[in-house]
Amino acid sequence: MSAPRTAGRTPPRTLPPPDAGELVELARGSARRRPAGRARRSRLGHRWFTPWLYLAVPLAFLVTFTCVPVVSLFSYSLTDWDGLSPTSHYVGLENYTELFTRPQLFRVFWVSLFYLAGSAVQICLALYFATVLSFHTRLRNLFKGILFFPYLINGVAIGFVFLYFFQPGGTLDTVLHWFGAGPHLWLGDPDLVNTSLAGVSVWRFMGLNMVLFIGAIQSIPPELYEAAALDGANRWQQFRHIIAPSIRPIVSLSVILAVSGALSVFEIPYVMTGGANNSQTFVIQTIKLAFNFNKTGLASAAAVVLLAFVLLITWLQRLLFPDERVEQT
């Protein structure tokens, strides 16, 4: 037998064992190379958690001061609680049955028609002043401040101011006397009291609608006005074809606020008349049911009905006059 041939073959190299420094670097590199899926899940978790962290406080206030009271209101409406007793009894829908079988409880909604008419006047005046003051007018900032200032005043203070304004021989009667008109019982005559109170509401809230309309009008690109002016359009044509279509969502919002406000008027008639002389609103009646007659369950049912009316009218308004949506391509 001949010996194995080993000529021309290179013996295998033996790598030296790594030192301690190389082992540390290898360990650090493997630690840095985490799976891509785990890192992606971590980023998604942070993206999901961060918005809720910022929303935690507003949601807590919303649940505490809106959701919980609404649920409590509905639960009280199903009981005969008088507002004072520690216990109450479940009566089901008896409070709602009493509401809908007593027409005098819904007769006060006729008073809201005066405030609805006042709201229409209020929106028209606000739209007029907003259109005029949106263009270059002398002292327009001064007039904006004057017209918006009543909205900043507390409703109770406004009620006391106009209480003296409408009293017999007061400011209004004095001014009318200069023109030969006699005095009137502005708050004592059932035929005049609701018109007077609605006029106060117009004076108070017109500035808010004006500011909303001004913001909407000033968001219209000025190039549209320039193009319309080059085509020979006057101010009325610019308002009709440029301003009115552009501010339609804000007008819709103002109508919703006006309707809900007309149904839930409280401060001004309560301070000025207390609901006397046929000026009692639905909210004033609800307050009296709860605190004067100790019928908190019935008053809660009335409040639920009012909330349902406001939501229904808002839904109908959004259904009949939907916002125009611009499709992005």
Automatic annotation (TrEMBL):
Top-rank lineage group of the source organism: Bacteria
Keywords of this entry: Cell membrane, Membrane, Transmembrane, Transmembrane helix, Transport
GO biological processes: transmembrane transport
Listed GO CC annotations: plasma membrane
Subcellular localization, as worded in the UniProt entry: Cell membrane
Residue numbers spanned by region Disordered: 1-20
Segments forming domain ABC transmembrane type-1: 108-317
Record's bilayer topology term: Multi-pass membrane protein
Listed InterPro entries: MetI-like, MetI-like_sf
Signal peptide: none
Entry-linked Pfam families: BPD_transp_1
TM stretches of this protein: 52-76, 108-130, 142-166, 196-217, 250-272, 298-316
Main location: membrane
Family indicated by similarity: Belongs to the binding-protein-dependent transport system permease family.
Protein name: Sugar ABC transporter permease
Native organism: Streptomyces bauhiniae
Upper lineage: Bacteria, Bacillati, Actinomycetota, Actinomycetes, Kitasatosporales
